[in-house]
Design a protein that fits this description.
Blueprint: E1 2-10, H1 46-50, E2 54-59, E3 73-74, E4 82-89, E5 113-120, E6 130-131, E7 135-139, E8 143-147, E9 151-157, E10 164-172, E11 178-184, E12 195-203, E13 208-217, E14 231-232, E15 245-251, E16 260-262, E17 266-268
Parallel strand pairs: 3-5
Antiparallel strand pairs: 1-2, 1-4, 5-15, 5-17, 6-14, 7-13, 8-13, 8-16, 9-12, 9-15, 10-11, 10-13
Amino acid sequence: MTHHIGVLFRPHRPDVVYNVPEWSDKKRDESGSELPRPKGQRQPQLSQHLGTTGIEASYVPGMSFSDYSLFHAGKLVRTGTDLVVQVHYTPNGTEMIDRPKIGFRVAKEEPQRRYISYALSSPSDAESFAIPPNNPNWESPVAEATFQEDAEMAWMSPHMHVRGKDMTYRLEYPDGRREIILNVPRYDFNWQLGYDLAQPIKIPKGTKLVVTAHFDNSVNNKFNPDPTRTVYYGNQTWEEMMMPFFGVIVDKKVDSKKVLVGSGPVIGGL
């Protein structure tokens, strides 16, 4: 069973053997859970492993396709760029065939602005992220980053696993104002929505994005595979993630690598 497909780009690498799947292995205990990482050791990012610039697009159940033309924006994919597809599989006991399909719409003329896809994460080490057994409302460490350039928030999509309960995106402006820009009080892993903003939110340089979330590791959560165990950060659905996705628009001359600086992992695209 597939629960996540990600699209990534990277500069052409002559050392790569193409069209051959690459398995990203994890050290796991007897239950199949990834071994907890010690304090100070971050969740290894696939983009770093594959030498990519970051996640450009993501599909989970419920997600619709992204149309950057709504914002007179686009992504620049340079000649010779490699396309990398990341798929998260969860075994269900039955052999299956998966054939993901990916489509692009090419702009007929140069877009006026640049659309950049991002994902933040809370700290993922075992000391910071460990959901206690039978806890119905555990609060995760925050995921946060500060904008180093003027931008506009155009899209947001919370991502957690089956114990995810709620997620809130908040902007803290340089003048001290605070504004909640997305509040999802009943998160559903089985139907994860992306929220397009008809009117993007202007974000001045120096603004901080702070995302908070809660998890339900109790018997009250009908999707909980085991409320009696401590749950750590990991890629499988019986583990957990706290990863808010979002998309911003910037001037096409802005360096995408300099838009955001985070206290934790920041996965940025082109």
